[in-house]
Design a protein that fits this description.
The chain is built from 8 helices and 8 strands; from the N terminus they run H-H-H-H-H-E-E-E-E-E-E-E-H-H-E-H. By secondary structure, it is α+β, with helices and mostly antiparallel strands. Strand 4 (about 170) and strand 5 (about 175-185) form a beta hairpin. The two termini are about 25 Å apart.
């Protein structure tokens, strides 16, 4: 007894249309099982995923590791990888699924370069900036800010500290956060003395007299990471990626602090993150970059596996697999 007769006997209420659908789906499943084995599928998946994923990860690493000191190396590797991808796309095409290897490598290289640059300009560049910038020691907060404008890290003199009693919280509509500001003073400064250096933070203070940003409450803390000018670390088209509050927001916060406590305005202000360990503060940018790179790499891998599976099996076969899983 053939397959159709057995099916009709087992399900007498099944109509002609239902039987034809059953036979059609069954034949497609048998054709799929005969066309590609799990071993072949796994091999093709490894071929389509490994190279593009390696190109993506390599671009992330090279951009964040060498763009600051050796940009030519990064651009040269990107050009070499794109050339290799084009060569693979042109010559590795014996079977239809092989065409996707070059396409995936091209896409992964471009996405890796873009993702690496975004991570670099939002995190890694600040680590390299503070590593290469000047460090000043025994700085007195009352001295003119112009004398330390090129500083990256400032070590304040003994007796200096954050005056949390004169801190303010400024609600910034542009940043969507409370910008916290507190003057850094020394024992020689009076309440009317112009303030040159401010500690700042985001969402870490009250409206008045309650400042607990970074390590401001630690008596041993005497270091400041100077907020760099966006032009010093970012290209013109990426100035919006600058970390922390904008210059206009900080200037508005300074005006509010001066109006609240009656201090006069100096010629120039310097804004710092007040920390106890500058090395640990610098490494926080590296930690952020590593976590972002791991997240991007994981998303790329998942996307490559999905796209490679679709390229190998085709949309129709994937639908059949999903139907079998659901059934």
């Amino acid at each position: 007894m053939d397959l159709e007769a057995r099916e009709q006997e087992a399900q007498p209420l099944l109509g002609k249309l239902g039987r034809s659908k059953f036979v059609s789906v069954s034949s497609k499943q048998q054709a799929f099982q005969a066309s590609i084995s799990p071993k072949t599928f796994t091999w093709r998946l490894l071929v389509l995923v490994s190279g593009p994923q390696l190109a993506f990860v390599a671009m992330l690493f090279l951009v964040n590791k060498f763009l600051y000191w050796h940009p030519v190396l990064v651009y040269s590797f990107a050009g070499l990888t794109l050339s290799l991808s084009t060569w693979v796309l042109k010559f590795y095409r014996k079977e239809p699924w092989q065409l996707w290897l070059g396409r995936f490598m091209l896409a992964s290289t471009v996405l890796g370069l873009v993702s690496g640059c975004l991570i670099y300009f939002t995190s890694s560049v600040y680590y390299y900036h503070y590593t290469g910038a000047a460090t000043y020691t025994s700085v007195v907060p009352s001295q003119p800010a112009e004398s330390i404008l090129d500083a990256g890290i400032v070590n304040f003199a003994v007796g200096s500290g954050v005056d949390a009693s004169r801190s303010i919280g400024f609600q910034s509509a542009a940043d969507g956060a409370v910008i916290c500001l507190a003057p850094i003073v020394d024992a020689s400064m009076k309440p009317q003395t112009p303030v040159n250096v401010f500690a700042y933070g985001i969402n870490c203070c009250g409206w008045h007299g309650n400042f607990h940003c970074d390590d401001a409450l630690k008596p041993s803390a005497r270091y400041g990471l100077v907020r760099p000018e966006p032009a010093a670390v970012l290209p013109p088209l990426l100035r919006d990626l600058a970390s922390g509050p904008s210059e206009e927001t900080l200037a508005a916060a300074v005006r509010l602090q001066q109006a609240s406590f009656g201090s006069s305005e100096p010629v120039k202000n310097i804004f710092v993150r007040y920390v106890n360990d500058p090395l640990l503060a610098k490494m926080s940018f590296v930690d952020t970059a590593v976590l972002a790179a791991l997240s991007c790499s994981s998303l790329c891998l998942v996307g490559l596996i999905a796209c490679a599976s679709l390229a190998i099996l085709g949309a129709g076969k994937i639908r059949l697999i999903l139907q079998r899983l659901v059934a």
